[in-house]
Amino acid sequence: xxxxxxxxxxxxxxxxxxxxxxxxxxxxxxxxxxxxxxxxxxxxxxxxxxxxxxxxxxxxxxxxxxxxxxxxxxxxxxxxxxxxxxxxxxxxxxxxxxxxxxxxxxxxxxxxxxxxxxxxxxxxxxxxxxxxxxxxxxxxxxxxxxxxxxxxxxxxxxxxxxxxxxxxxxxxxxxxxxxxxxxxxxxxxxxxxxxxxxxxxxxxxxxxxxxxxxxxxxxxxxxxxxxxxxxxxxxxxxxxxxxxxxxxxxxxxxxxxx
Amino acid sequence: xxxxxxxxxxxxxxxxxxxxxxxxxxxxxxxxxxxxxxxxxxxxxxxxxxxxxxxxxxxxxxxxxxxxxxxxxxxxxxxxxxxxxxxxxxxxxxxxxxxxxxxxxxxxxxxxxxxxxxxxxxxxxxxxxxxx
Lengths: 258, 132
Fold this sequence. Notes:
The structure holds 2 protein chains of 2 kinds. Chain A is of the alpha+beta class. Chain A has helices spanning about 1-25, 35-65, 140-150, 160-190; strands at about 70-80, 85-90, 95-100, 100-105, 115-120, 190-195, 205-210, 215-220, 220-225, 235-240. In chain A, strand 2 (about 85-90) and strand 3 (about 95-100) form a beta hairpin. In chain A, about 30% of the residues are buried. Helices cover about 40% and strands about 15% of the residues of chain B. In chain B, a hairpin with a 4-residue loop joins strand 2 and strand 3. By secondary structure, chain B is α+β, with helices and mostly antiparallel strands. Chain B has helices spanning about 1-20, 30-60, and strands at about 65-70, 80-85, 90, 95, 105-110. Among the domains of chain B are: about 30-60; about 65-115, no CATH class. The chains are: A alpha+beta, B alpha+beta. Chains A and B meet through helix 2, strand 1, strand 4, strand 5 and helix 4 of A and helix 2, strand 1, strand 2, strand 4 and strand 5 of B.
């Protein structure tokens, strides 16, 4: 009984402190303290926010860079998915030459009348170094370190902190605009399931005639993958059916097309 | 004379009122409190920005450039091309161009077929793209 009472008293003694800590946990500002203590807290928060915003700005800049390197290539599917007509295709399994659809650059349709607008990444100029980096990069971390070094040199007076807050607010507005632009772009992009059909080594596949008098060979080509039993080789990113960012899109964000 | 007197009175009134119209500079604690309020709002804004910015980072980490060319472009009688239709026509088609030593005509944006971007495709962070 005495032990239970002691435990209850200990709990009562701890409770206010715990409640206080829990209640103000979300606020970075001291409950009380001198102006110097409050200013210290402001410095810490400004420095942390600057680091976070710098990393986000790095990502936003990368998006802006590679967005400028993208251009659309009109692509359509030629041939019948039911294989009644289309490209000549031979599995060389004794069934003979049949028909297969395939994808080709659409040189004839009017703009926005093509089946898909595939997204080609330019290789010239600065685009070579702006290419996407599968697997990510360690750059944001180095950005954070560089900023931390720079932040140490920034004015920590109240006036200086006020100016840094104004700059942070401007940066946040710009970041929001960039994220909205990416969202509009991403919401409009569809994933087209594409597989390479035919043997890349020429054992079977689409019938191809090289230039000149050379004999017909077998080549592989790309077609929309409508099979239910296996994954496609890739999902190509495309605007489908005349969709364009900012002008209304027919499909749900990131929808696969089949 | 009356006009001069009126002007003098008006000027005096302005001069007397002016010191009261100018706001007193905020005290240090007030300024700190104002900065803290602005930072509270900024903390929320930055928190809200994390998700959309992360979406782009994930998108970029999961995306590949796939080299593609267009063999058979040009349908002249003796030109190259894939057989199409029933009358011996030839036409071009898109084909992967990731194995040769030449430069593919296009670098299309793509995701790997078995790994849509909603899955953790960035778990191999740091690996280089070997498809192109």
